[in-house]
Design brief:
It comes from Lepraria finkii. Keywords: Repeat. This is Nephrocystin 3-like N-terminal domain-containing protein. Helix 5 links the parallel strand 2 and strand 3. The chain has a 3-stranded parallel β-sheet with strand order 1-2-3, sandwiched between helices. Helix 2 packs across helix 4 and helix 4 runs parallel beside helix 5. The protein is elongated. By secondary structure, it is mainly alpha-helical. It is built from 7 helices and 3 strands.
């Protein structure tokens, strides 16, 4: 996913708004939470789009400052989610590409909500004539099904690369693998997964 994002930024960085969030189950809650994903994606969006920044300040921010004054207040997930999905589906905005990595490292209920919200936004964007592309990655749990999408299962594409890697790794160690098909056993046991 990092490579896709880097390539997208290099090739289309000025003509598209590229947004990304990488979930991580290691470390702080900021890497596992839908709240932090929406907060990060919203920040990136308003940073790149003056129109979205204007919309944020004239709707949410002004309403919050009228209610709470000019104090340090928090945004809640519903506000961020509603604003973000409304903003990315508006017509006339630059094309948007969103990368979300490791959805499976977020909790199950949040994953289902995230997928449903993005699926709905993709449909609304099409209706509105907005150009929004969403790319996410996830392990098989929780299983994610999205209508009208392209799905690529990496483990069904990796066998040749894993076999080459295993062959080179064992060759470098001068291991005698031909006697009991060690290479073949390792490749089969990997079941398409590099880890």
């Amino acid at each position: 996913m990092k490579r896709l994002l880097d390539r997208s930024l290099a090739n289309n960085g000025n003509s598209r708004i590229c947004l990304a969030f990488f979930f991580s189950a290691r470390g702080a809650d900021t890497g596992r939470s839908a709240y932090w994903m929406y907060r990060s994606l919203t920040h990136q969006l308003v940073w790149r789009s003056q129109e979205c920044l204007q919309k944020l300040t004239t709707t949410l921010f002004d309403a919050k400052t009228r209610r709470f004054g000019k104090v340090n207040f928090d945004w809640n997930i519903m506000e961020l989610r509603k604003f973000f999905h409304s903003a990315i589906t508006q017509a006339g905005l630059e094309p948007i590409v969103i990368y979300v990595d490791a959805l499976d490292e977020c909790n199950d209920e949040n994953v289902r909500n995230i997928v449903a919200a993005f699926e709905h936004s993709a449909a609304v964007a099409i209706e509105n004539g907005a150009d929004v592309n969403i790319c996410w990655s996830s392990g098989h749990y929780p299983h994610i099904k999205v209508s009208k999408s392209l799905e690529l299962r990496m483990e069904s594409q990796n066998a040749a690369d894993i076999a080459l890697h295993v062959h080179n790794a064992l060759k470098d160690r001068n291991a005698k693998t031909s006697d009991f098909d060690l290479e073949g056993k390792i490749v089969r046991k990997a079941n398409g997964v590099f880890l």
